[in-house]
Design brief:
The protein is built from 14 helices and seven strands. By secondary structure, it is α/β, with parallel strands linked by helices. The protein has a single domain, classed as Vaccinia Virus protein VP39 (Rossmann fold, 3-Layer(aba) Sandwich), CATH 3.40.50.150. The protein has a seven-stranded mixed sheet, sandwiched between helices. Strand 1, helix 4 and strand 2 form a beta-alpha-beta unit.
Length: 309
């Protein structure tokens, strides 16, 4: 699909009554949720990568209290964290996006990943299998996500990541996965300030951010750096309620974390040679080319761990 057509459709749906319901139906029929099993598997692998980075930073999740910013349609990370032994997971969404039918499908799909979860967490596989099966049974009988996870997962929506109302100094980990790229810069800064407030001393926040043009996933004629050709004013034509992209580079995100008071323990961002080559063939808008080096512009993904002193 031409990226401009997708952008125009999403823009229009943002203004019509029932637009969110229509957008969800399109996602299920022909979009990112059409192959739900594949989407689950990708998210589980993202969770595995987060666990790897946390382990590198000396962080374990067993017995911890965790906040997720942006749980989305199906709570893969909270469910995996429950199976990994987390004591409490607050899953926050600005809007109530969670789809009960997807939650049940996800719980069932996690049977394919029990061995992985056991390996990553060093917990007995039979124990995780029992928890996963009990979770599926409870959901199929109409039980809530909270009940199915022994009141470990607490889904809250509408919720504000910049003002969580959680007590100060009570959280061990704050994280997000493919969320920050969809938030305006001032909201990210406010969310980092709030994370610093609610984290215990020595607590961490982990963020995995996709800094590439998301339209490239539906239009193979463009690449992950495509949107750097446009000014903010030009790009506003394509930003919309369902696919807002702030176009922040990885360097800005870690700078914001430091400005909020965090120390960066781990920064996995690296420019890929393919992106460097693509960048050389493009005319990047001066608002980017005069501020960032080619290497900084070519980074389209960043995972980082930031610690509260």
């Amino acid at each position: 699909m031409d990226w401009r057509l997708k952008g125009a459709i999403q823009k229009a749906l943002g203004f019509v009554p029932g637009g969110r319901r229509i957008h969800y139906g399109l996602q299920r029929a022909a979009g990112g949720l059409a192959d739900f099993g594949r989407e689950c598997d990708i998210k589980v692998d993202d969770w595995r990568l987060m666990m790897t980075h946390l382990r590198t930073a000396g962080v374990t999740v067993a017995g911890t209290t965790i906040v997720e910013i942006g749980a989305g349609r199906f709570p893969t990370f909270p469910m995996c964290l429950y199976l990994a032994g987390a004591a409490r997971v607050y899953a926050l969404d600005r809007d109530r996006l969670i789809a009960p039918e997807l939650v049940e499908d996800l719980a069932d799909r996690l049977s394919n990943h029990v061995a992985l979860i056991a390996d990553v967490t060093h917990r007995p596989e039979p124990e995780i299998t029992a928890l996963q099966r009990a979770m599926v049974t409870t959901l199929r009988r109409g039980g809530s996500l909270a009940v199915a996870t022994g009141n470990v997962v607490d889904y809250r929506a509408p919720a504000d990541a910049t003002a969580t109302a959680l007590p100060a100094g009570t959280i061990d980990i704050v994280f997000s996965n493919s969320v920050l790229e969809h938030m305006p810069a001032p909201a990210i800064e406010a969310a980092f300030t709030e994370a610093l407030r609610i984290l215990r001393p020595g607590g961490v926040m982990f963020h995995a951010v996709n800094c590439g043009d998301h339209y490239a996933y539906v239009d193979r004629s463009i690449n992950q750096l495509h949107y750097l050709q446009y000014s903010d004013e030009e790009w506003e034509r394509w930003n919309n309620k369902f696919l807002y992209q702030n176009r922040l580079r990885a360097k800005e995100l870690t700078r914001m974390a430091r400005a909020a008071g965090f120390v960066i323990d781990l920064d996995a961002s690296r420019p890929h040679p393919k992106r460097i080559a693509e960048l050389a063939k493009m005319t990047v808008h001066p608002q980017f080319s005069t501020v960032y080096t080619p290497d900084e512009l070519a980074i389209t993904s960043v995972d980082f761990v930031a610690r509260k002193p």
